[in-house]
Structure formats: C-alpha cells, structure tokens
Amino acid sequence: MKRIILFLFIVIVGMACNRTTDNSASGTNNASTIAPEKKLTEIKDKKDAQPIPDTPDTKKDIIEKKPKEDKKATKFKKNTRQKNDKIKANKRGTTKKEVILPNLETSTKAFSKDYLMGKFKPNQHPDFTKIAAIHASRKGMHLRKDAYAAFVSMYNAAKKDGVTLKIISATRPFHHQKRIWEAKWTGKRAVNGKRLPAKVDNAKERALLILHYSSMPGTSRHHWGTDIDLNDLNNRYFERGVGQRIYKWMSANASKYGFCQVYSPKGDNRPWGYEEEKWHWSYLPVAKRLTELYKTTMNNTDISGFKGSETAISIDMINKYVLGINPDCK
Ligand SMILES: [Zn+2]
Known about the structure:
Blueprint: H1 2-25, H2 36-49, H3 59-91, H4 113-116, E1 128-130, E2 142-144, H5 145-160, E3 167-169, H6 174-185, H7 203-210, E4 227-230, H8 241-253, E5 259-260, E6 280-283, H9 284-297, H10 311-315, H11 317-322
Antiparallel strand pairs: 1-2, 3-4, 4-6, 5-6
The chain binds zinc ion (ZN).
C-alpha cells in the first residue's frame, strides 16, 4: 500500500512539473524562474514542434495587419492635411473652393527644362495668347491662356470696385532676360541707380547686387507665362494714393483668382530671394507645378549661357532664389 501511495505521489508531482514547463514556454509564466539557456532551448523546441497557424503572433498575421494600419495612417494624415489647408486658406480670407479658375484645356501635358528656362517663343506656343491693349501698358505681350483668362476675371472684378489693373510686363523669354542681365553686368544699365564698373573684381558680389531686382536668365518666373508685373515697378507707388488702393484690392482679392504675391517682404519666413515686389503676381494653379518641377528636375549647373552664369553654383540660385518665395505661394 505504501509503495502504491509513493508511486501515485511521484506520478502527480511529475505531471505538475510538466505543466509548469509548458506554461513557461508559451510565455504565460514568469520567465525569470527559468535559466536563460533552458528558456531558449524550450522556446526553440516549441517553435519547431507547433504548427504555425496555432500561434496568433506569426509573421503572416503581422504582414496581413500592416497594410490596414498604413491605410488608416494615410487617411488620418490626408484628413489632417486637408484640415490644415482649410485653416491656412481661411487665414488668407478665402477657401480653396472659392478660387475662380478658368476651365481651359491646354496642350502642355509635361513641361521640359527648356520651358522652365524660357527657351521657347511665347508668340508661337499653343498655350499662349496675346494680351489685349485694354489690359496692358504696351502691345506685343503674351501670357499663358489659363493665366490670362484668370487675369481678365480679376481685372473685371477690380474694375467694378473702381480699381484699374494694368499689366506692364508679362512673359519674358530667356534671351530677353539675358539682355537685361548682361546690360547690368557690363555696366550699360544702372543697378540700384548706379552703373557697375566694367572691370569685374568679384563676380559673386556683382551677381548678388543685380539679383536684388533682376533674375538670372533661366531662373525668372516671367519665363513661365504665369507671372505679371502690375501698374508700377516701385514699392513706394503702392504705399499711397491710387497705388495703395490697387495693392489693398489685390491683397484682399487676388487669391480668389489664383494670384499670389511671390516676393513678399523679406524676413524669418522668407530669408532668401528677391527683395519685396508689390507689383509681381503669380498665377499659382500652373506656377506651383512649375516651381515644384524646377526644384526636382533642375540643377544650378543648368543655369548657363550668359555673362556671370558661373556664379549660379556658389550663390545656390535654385534654393535661394527660385525657391526663395513667399511660403503662402508654394
Ligand atoms: Zn516681375
């Protein structure tokens, strides 16, 4: 009898020990009670012994769950972005939906580097049109058809409010900008009221001086057919009288028609680029895309073919000037 009781005792104790080992291996028991070597061996044995679908945390499940989580995260990010855009638009006094855009089909599906650099003829390009005399200070200027249609809507709205907008400069091809730049570079044309000496001591300094108000050929937004100069090329003109009324009207209404003042006052949010230009307005629905393309496809070494072009690299023309615009216009 004693032997039978002893035998039963050994069997019960043995069963109890096996249960403890199983639980530890499946991670429900306190792992610190098992020696590290033993734990590793047991986990390995269990992994080999068990068929994969029995355990919930297999790699298969993780892979299946991941896309769902990513989808959720993307949706959340998209919603947040849309919300932020709306807040931004409201701050500017308009929402995206309020922007009046012309519904025009244009032939340009993709823009080339030559287009970005103004190396084409606006009067022969299918997406361009002549600016009517009533809207301009002189004949022979061109704009993209979409930008011009938006301008005409804006012009008519301004006229109703007693404000007359006049385009004094529009599309300027590469060779036109090269003429302006080289006249300044060689001292034939004044820079900030003074002609530069014929001898070039410091090319970079000379380029930076001209860059206060003139673009380097190949980097001007005027190449794109989306940008216009209005009424006067002097900030002071827009600070009183008729000029002030024009500027106030544009600041309040231009965004409804897709236009933005790209050269806003320099400061913390625009530390680089051209000085403030209260006359220069850009048609964003197309210009935004061109700015982005300039950023992704152009290099400073592409800026060449005129006097002083070697300075484009040390100045970092693309980052500092092409992209140095009012953040609200990006
Ligand atoms: Zn301009």
